[in-house]
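Dear colleague,

Following up on Tuesday's group meeting, I ran the structure prediction for the two-component complex that the binding team flagged. I've pasted the input sequences exactly as they went in, so you can double-check that nothing got truncated or mislabelled along the way. The structure tokens for the whole assembly follow below. Feel free to forward this to whoever is handling the docking comparison.

Inputs:
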Amino acid sequence: MTGISDRDFSIIGRSVRQVDGAEKLTGTAVFAGDVYLHGMLFAAVLRSPIAHGLIQRIDVSRAERVKGVKAVVTGNDCPFRYNPPLRDQPFLAIDRVRYVGEPVVAIAAEDEETARRAALLVEVDYEELPAVFDPLAAMSKEAPRIHPDFDNYVRDSRLFTPVPQSNILSHFKLRKGNVDAGFAAADRIFEGTYRSHAFNHAPLEPHAAVAQVDRTGQLTLWASTQSPWFVAEDLAKALGWPVHRVRVISPYIGGGFGIKHGLKNEPIAVALALKANGRPVRFVLSREEVFSSTAVRGAVTVSLKTGVREDGSIVARKAEVVWDTGAYADVGPLLCRNGSYSATGPYRIENQWIDGYCVYTNKIVSSAFRGYGVMEMAFAYESHTDEIARALSLDTVEYRRRILLREGDENATGEVVRSIGLRECLDACAEAMDWDNPVPEGRGRAIVTTAKSSVAPSGSSCFMYMNDDGSLTLMSSTTEMGQGSRTVLSQIAAESVGARLEDIRLRASDTAFTPPDRSTSSSRSTFNMGNAVFTAGQDVRKQILSRASALLEVSPDELEICNSSVQVRGVPAACCSFSDVAKVLPGATSGPITAHGSFVPKETTSFDLETGRGVRITAFWLYSSQGVEVSVDGDTGEITVHKIVSVHDTGRTLNPSACAVQAEGGVAIACSAALTEETILDEHGRVVNPSFMDYEMATAGDVPEIFPIMVEVPHAEGPYGAKGMGEGPTTGVAAAIANAVADAADIRVRDLPLTPERILRSMQVLEG
Amino acid sequence: MTGISDRDFSIIGRSVRQVDGAEKLTGTAVFAGDVYLHGMLFAAVLRSPIAHGLIQRIDVSRAERVKGVKAVVTGNDCPFRYNPPLRDQPFLAIDRVRYVGEPVVAIAAEDEETARRAALLVEVDYEELPAVFDPLAAMSKEAPRIHPDFDNYVRDSRLFTPVPQSNILSHFKLRKGNVDAGFAAADRIFEGTYRSHAFNHAPLEPHAAVAQVDRTGQLTLWASTQSPWFVAEDLAKALGWPVHRVRVISPYIGGGFGIKHGLKNEPIAVALALKANGRPVRFVLSREEVFSSTAVRGAVTVSLKTGVREDGSIVARKAEVVWDTGAYADVGPLLCRNGSYSATGPYRIENQWIDGYCVYTNKIVSSAFRGYGVMEMAFAYESHTDEIARALSLDTVEYRRRILLREGDENATGEVVRSIGLRECLDACAEAMDWDNPVPEGRGRAIVTTAKSSVAPSGSSCFMYMNDDGSLTLMSSTTEMGQGSRTVLSQIAAESVGARLEDIRLRASDTAFTPPDRSTSSSRSTFNMGNAVFTAGQDVRKQILSRASALLEVSPDELEICNSSVQVRGVPAACCSFSDVAKVLPGATSGPITAHGSFVPKETTSFDLETGRGVRITAFWLYSSQGVEVSVDGDTGEITVHKIVSVHDTGRTLNPSACAVQAEGGVAIACSAALTEETILDEHGRVVNPSFMDYEMATAGDVPEIFPIMVEVPHAEGPYGAKGMGEGPTTGVAAAIANAVADAADIRVRDLPLTPERILRSMQVLEG
């Protein structure tokens, strides 16, 4: 990366304010739910009341007769299926329902009340089928088949292996070294099964979509989607249209956390728009719908078996991971792969044998969640690591230092790791936790280390142009959902060009114009889009210097750019502004200043399906270390988290306060998920807590003091050395709390969430 | 231009159908007037009933009280002025009105009827001032000053010279050689004064604008404007905002012809939107408003004096040109310059002395019209050329052959002309007119030659990206107004990439995304934007070849692209599609395929204000020759045009049928303007024929048979050698008809339009 130098940066590295802060604080920022269009219709959906069944009959005639109803659609009216890489999910249920809450009939009317009223008049007869909710039960050959038509689904990719005639849609394998020989050589063997639970992403903004198919057949979709290109391509494939016929506009997003990555409510808005004679259709979910029918962070069961020598070095690791994907695939196959290969953690383990299973159940779908499986895996492997250290009477931090991956090591997937800030994170965390001194009386503490990959290969691109007044427009499909992408991309643009931050105008994503970008997910935007922006910015800078060189009649080498102005080095009076440079005047030798940037990480490769090995499967790793200090109330079972230290290797910290806020937000979410949040189903598969009254989510007052710390081990390929860091803060918190509880109360809880009930039960077991 | 080669082209050079034909034929194409937004308000305007006066009092209180009225604005509410290069025109009249029809008060209401009704309740008191309608009278020192505050106006450019304390806002001078010596050396001297009249552009689509200032302060303007960037920059300067705060979206346009180049009704929509609390305001003009208050092609008086030797060679030309710009500058200064320097025509004239005057009058504003002054100048110089030839008893075609500019000659502004297809045009026209054989009994005929420059330097830029399915999105700010730009740019894109035409998706202009382009005017889009698209296309092609080379494992040199597919040369089975190439897959070495193109013509320079000389002031010239055959009814004075041959040097004909249609359309308009159309004012300055009932416009049935012919003298800098050709067809028609009438009836009419009344009067003069 040519941008790394020792010169002082003027904009990156500074805690500049969020460029969208004012808009959000004053309430002027536009979200998808704020889009009101002329002639807009409003949607309501009738959903399945049962977890599994065949649709025998749908009678929409009474609903259609309601005044104001303009369109009624069923699955048979729109026989399209979405979800790459496995197109298993219909826009509306076709012939069969697979979970409680699955959309069956959608209605568009002149107002929302009418649509809802009409939905109640639809009659659906079901033939109920046996449902299966437990993924382990669903894996057996005898379990009811949830997708008997599985083999007919379109598969966009062969990078996952279904188990024929079963509910297992993907069996991921990682094979490294000789695990049997490893266990044979082990002095001690440890085993444990760790369970993570389902919970909701609960973004503040419920999913909102407005879809319109105009008179020319062009579909425009305004949606609260993190990944407009992902959605455009998925919809186009589902509909059998060229991609450019689907335009996805993604304004600000009020929180995503993964649930707004792929299609959720959008297909329903589209299904209605296709029948609405050109009128736009708005479909904004109620909070109840978000909780009970969009998606959850799915439950995962991880069984680990580890062979160690007396000194603690790990000679073999076997893991079986079962991912409950719910009724449809969503990101299941990829999650199963990327999560499962993380089962070894950031540790040196020569011999590994991992099996990951992604399994259908008759439940709400599981989707991506910030951390993408590593939160669940880290809960397992970091609980497990502590168990080993404690059993061997080793200091848990010192033990980790010993087994951590180091620069030049080969990791699970065969990559030789570089730029690995693990030790730096761990040391910084230990220092901030005052690890060398004893914990205060009555408290326990723990420090964990985690590593998370980022999706690769995945491309990002952007356009940039200079306006006549010297300001710059940046066009990127990265979406702003509170994570600060607008600010950091604007900073990279300004720094790379030499412009003032306020001269950068970043446009909201619109796939008709902002060029392709895989997604805003996987902590990839600063790294991938950042690189694209940097490339464009450098090109713009070069063009500016060339023009200024003509205007000022000196060689470009003698010029310097700063604050949207070019001056002859050392001669401040000999200068010109960007607006001087922007104009196409007589004598011009070039047209408007425009540039593009396109990026893909170097040398990423694919997995071998039999061994799970690839040379380099991520552009960078998110390395983190997190420490917590807790106390446990032996009477109530309540855990009090006193503080959390959250350390991340950012490569380079482009905006310290933005990184700190990311760390705080991630830790808070992870804390809430580890301690209280859970999507609870009854025996019929119904979500019993689909409201903020019943769903226990931590508020600001419940979150402990958080100490975010950034360490910088520059990445050779990152923009200014930066890596992504958005997901790191969520990964280790649950494990750290569980380990701190073990430290405080000498109990080991292997099931999440760490509710008072579970704590008490564990204590009684100990006592009993 | 590296694109010129002898290989067979697959898409350019073919008469492919207009890519927007189906949309327009089926009525699905969206125009600005089709934009209906949620909460939209409707505008009406109260206009000045007098030609010149001071505003004493405006009382809007009764209007404001009308139920449904949401905003009422006067000039004092929006003290902004537009029009580069001279910011003389207020959004609404401030203190003074200068023509009948000038907007004084604007009202936005819940519906159009309410807005109109409220406008009638506004009371305005004027102190009437003497008005001046004749530009020659307006030039005198005694004439009423129309802009006494002229010196306070902002001037964006110094490239024009006002005459102090007068109504002359620009005095253009061209001085070449020694004109006195030239006249002294002449054998004969000819003089004549030629008058072109005012007429309306009369686009089928009346001007439409919808403006909205959103909660963040961003202005979005949907408008029937030819030149969205020109409008965005003009508005931003007027408002004192950064350019990116003004977003101009230009959907399809139903005819422009120059009247939709700069701001017309848009400032009023904006003035109201600024007061409308975020609600959008729609302002679509009535036909009467288009006729009486937008703009006209202005009247021009050209006095020519020419010294010739006995052999007809011209030794001196003196010209005085008076341009009536109406009440405001609009494009007046530039028009005066570019029109006036055309007074010598495409002929070799060593000594020249030209004075051009752009003059304010109390009339509707004059704006750009297709041909940009050359229509008026050519009427003068080509009438004059024929008069000379006839006086010298020379064949008018042979005479022109003798005096035409030739390759390597220096023209009026000092440019050494290249790629000059004048002789080719003239010869082709003479052949098609069967010039060597006598004209049928009772008819007259004439052939003229003209040259028109294109605005320069002016930049164009575009972006292009490849979608995941291999289709390509092209983003250009060129607007489609019936001239076929979408088709020709799509052709250039497809050809330069190697894609199928249907794989190119061209997006409508939107200044938030489509990068800067000066304007869709001046026949510049095929040349300027065409070059930008070509550059981007070549870059995309290179990227495709590089990726295909990796996929097919051969060197890029061994590959060929055709029909959106890449194959190993000579091995059709070894191929991959664009969609194979588009995907970012494991092993990818580059991100999404994106490209930009930016163009400015080489070596254009500016004018010297005292001599009007510049080395190269246009990127290319439109060279044309047009022949007509007429008969004149001696009883009625009616002219029948039997046929028109219209020959144009396209450089390379990128789409033969599109060029032919351009020629036919231009000739039809010019014919109608020459024979019947006229915007007529009464003695108070009121337009007396502001409707299609009273304004005589030729219909398809009135237009003679037109024979379009393209000749190709490739331009070294043009895309595939092409030049622009859109304005050529309008330039020579009036002169050709006047000359043919002279040939048929031995009368010389020097005033346009060539109405039966004028013809009869000329004949009676001859008879009398």
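Chain A touches chain B through 68 residues (CB under 8 Å).

Cheers,
M.
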